[in-house]
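Hey, resending since the last one bounced:
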Amino acid sequence: MLTHEKTSTAGLTPADRLPRRVSNISQALRAIDREPLESDAAAHKVVVRPVRSSLELEEVYRLTHDAYVERNYCTPQPDGKLIHYPHLENIPETTVLVALQDGKVMGTVSLTLDGPQGIHADLDFADVARLARSEGRKLGAAWRMATRQTLRGERQVVMALIGEVVSYAFEVFDLDTFLCTFNPRHERIYGRLLGMRTIARNETSEGLENAPAVLMRCDREMVPEKWLKRTLAGQDLSLCASR
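The structure tokens again:
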């Protein structure tokens, strides 16, 4: 997490230790929506790949905690970590992706294939999730997108995370559809970027505060071609991604 000066943290609460700004995905998404995709992520050396160690996974939990606290989705936790959907962690169906710049985790997104533990949408949108399953399409869900606030480069981190989760969903795991929940303010942007459509709304989100949600679906046949057939950074598409 970027800081400009060293200060003493003695006697501070977890909330006091948070940086002034952790994430502004909305601003980054608006920038992506306005400008061509091109290859900004490569220019700023953003690498997205699955987590490789328990230490990186712990960093995902801390990053998620800070981003969610900043958005008032949850209260600060004593350990500075947030595991939003514990039943989806450390299972074969879940891949946790991290975006790195200069070796530092700057963002994350998770992808879960539908299986014995289900998907995160089962908690807030159970009826709609069941209906999606009934179509017989190969189903998954993308969730837990979070980024650090930086002086520059957040647009590139968000773009890279979106591109790689689309690649993993449709090229690595051969899904037909994946579901996502977003704050309603992101609804129009994801519709324009990925051809996603809203299929349900909820005033609350499981385990969070002040978090209204829209459930959107991303269908392979509706995704613009520019998001498909991307090359995963340093990955062989024939290999199953590790967590």
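The first strand starts at residue 46 and ends at 50.

Sorry for the duplicate.
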